[in-house]
Design a protein that fits this description.
Strand 14 and strand 15 form a beta hairpin. By secondary structure, the chain is mainly beta. The longest helix has 11 residues. It folds into two domains: about 170 residues, Methylamine Dehydrogenase, Chain H (7 Propeller); about 110 residues, YVTN repeat-like/Quinoprotein amine dehydrogenase (Methylamine Dehydrogenase, Chain H, 7 Propeller). About 10% of the residues have low confidence. The strands form eight sheets. A five-stranded antiparallel beta sheet has the order 26-27-28-1-31, with no helix packed on it. Strands 2-3-4-5 form a four-stranded antiparallel beta sheet. It has a four-stranded antiparallel beta sheet with strand order 6-7-8-9, with no helix packed on it. One of its GO terms (cellular component) is cytosol. One of its GO terms (molecular function) is U2 snRNP binding. InterPro entries: WD40/YVTN_repeat-like_dom_sf, WD40_PAC1, WD40_repeat_dom_sf, WD40_rpt. This is Serine-threonine kinase receptor-associated protein.
C-alpha cells in the first residue's frame, strides 16, 4: 500500500541552512550538526531531530560544519575568517583557528587529531589539534575559492573542490595527484569510505567517481539544477535536491527515479543520509532542516506506523503518528540547560 512521505521539520535557524553532517553511530545514537547563515550552528539528535544545543561564538555566517566520528567534537567554518573546534558534549569552544579569508569547509581525521580547512583564500590548511599554537601545514594549487575539502583513503589523501575543479592530494608529500575539470560550477562533494566513492554535483548532473583514481563510475541527470546529493550507505539509493525545491530519490544501480516531492519552501542546499541509512536530512534556503524516511511507513525514531485491526470493519490505512510530548521534551531540555550554550528552543514538527 502506497504511503505518503511525512517529514519531520526542525525549526530554530533564522537564515538559510547551507551545510549539515552526521556523526557515526555512538553508544548514544547518532547526531546531526547544521551550518547556517545566522552564525549559530546547531546540534541535534540524528534520528529524531530533537535539538540538543546551539554553538555560540561566531560573528558571521557559518558555511561548513562537521562532527567527528564519535560525536565528541564539532568543527565549524565561518565568514568571520575563523574555524572553530568545539566540545560537542558540553558545547564549550575549544579553539579558534584564525584564517586570512572566509572559511567554507572543515573535516576531522578519523582519530580527530587533525583538522582540514579550506576557503576563499584558495589554501588547504591542516591543523594539529594537539598543538593548537603550531602553524598549520598549507597546500596551495587551487585557482579559486575552495568549497569543500575532505580526508579520504584513511586520511592518506585529501579531496578538495573549488569552482570548477576537483583535486586529489597526497597527504604525505602535500602534492597534487590528479584533478578533474568541469564546465560548470561544482555545487557539492560527498566521500563514501566504503568503496572509495566520490559523489560530485554540478549543474543538473550527479556524477560518481573513484576517490582513489578520480576515474568516472557513472552519472545521472536530474530535471533541475542540483545543489547536493548523497549516496545511501548500502549504495542502494541516491537522494538529491536543488533549485526547484524538490527532493529526488534514485535507484543507484539503474538510475531510475523512484520518488520526487516538494521538500521545502526554498532551494535545497544540502542533503545527507544518516549513518544507518534509515533517513536522510535536507537543509534549505527556507531556514529549516527536514528529516525524511528512506523506507516510508517504517517505525523508526518519531515515526510510528499504525495499522487498524482488520476486524474493525474499517479499511486498513497505514498512517504515521508522532508522540505528543516531542516538543514538551525539547522545552524541558532547554529549561534544564538555560545557563549553558543553549538558546531558544527550536521545534520538531510533523
Amino acid at each position: 500500500m502506497a504511503m505518503r512521505q511525512t517529514p519531520l521539520t526542525c525549526s530554530g535557524h533564522t537564515r538559510p541552512v547551507v551545510d549539515l553532517a552526521f556523526s557515526g553511530i555512538t553508544p548514544y545514537g547518532y547526531f546531526l550538526i547544521s551550518a547556517c547563515k545566522d552564525g549559530k550552528p546547531m546540534l541535534r539528535q540524528g534520528d529524531t531531530g530533537d535539538w540538543i544545543g546551539t554553538f555560540l561564538g561566531h560573528k558571521g555566517a557559518v558555511w561548513g560544519a562537521t562532527l567527528n566520528k564519535d560525536a565528541t567534537k564539532a568543527a565549524t567554518a565561518a565568514a568571520d575568517f575563523t574555524a572553530k573546534v568545539w566540545d560537542a558534549v558540553s558545547g564549550d569552544e575549544l579553539m579558534t583557528l584564525a584564517h586570512k579569508h572566509i572559511v567554507k569547509t572543515v573535516d576531522f581525521t578519523q582519530d580527530s587529531n587533525y583538522l582540514l580547512t579550506g576557503g576563499q583564500d584558495k589554501l588547504l590548511r591542516i591543523y594539529d589539534l594537539n598543538k593548537p599554537e603550531a602553524e598549520p601545514k598549507e597546500i596551495s594549487g587551487h585557482t579559486s575559492g575552495i568549497k569543500k575539502a575532505l580526508w579520504c583513503s584513511e586520511d592518506k589523501q585529501i579531496l578538495s573542490a573549488d569552482d570548477k575543479t576537483v583535486r586529489l592530494w597526497d597527504h604525505a608529500t602535500m602534492t597534487e595527484v590528479k584533478s578533474l575539470n568541469f564546465n560548470m560550477s561544482v555545487s557539492s562533494m560527498e566521500y563514501i569510505p566504503e568503496g572509495e566513492i566520490l559523489v560530485i554535483t554540478y549543474g543538473r548532473s550527479i556524477a560518481f567517481h573513484s576517490a582513489v583514481s578520480l576515474d568516472p563510475i557513472k552519472s545521472f541527470e536530474a530535471p533541475a539544477t542540483i545543489n547536493s546529493a548523497s549516496l545511501h550507505p548500502e549504495k542502494e539509493f541516491l537522494v538529491a535536491g536543488g533549485e526547484d525545491f524538490k527532493l529526488y530519490k534514485y535507484d543507484y544501480n539503474s538510475g531510475e527515479e523512484l520518488e520526487s516531492y516538494k521538500g521545502h519552501f526554498g532551494p535545497i542546499h544540502c542533503v545527507r543520509f544518516s549513518p544507518d541509512g534509515e533517513l536522510y536530512a535536507s537543509g534549505s534556503e527556507d531556514g529549516t532542516l527536514r528529516l525524511w524516511q528512506t523506507v516510508v511507513g517504517k517505525t523508526y525514531g518519531l515515526w510510528k506506523c499504525v495499522l487498524p485491526e482488520e476486524d474493525s470493519g474499517e479499511l486498513a490505512k497505514p498512517k504515521i503518528t508522532f508522540p505528543e510530548t516531542a516538543e514538551e521534551e525539547l522545552e524541558e531540555i532547554a529549561s534544564e540547560n538555560s545557563d549553558s550554550i543553549y538558546s531558544s528552543t527550536p521545534e520538531v514538527k510533523a
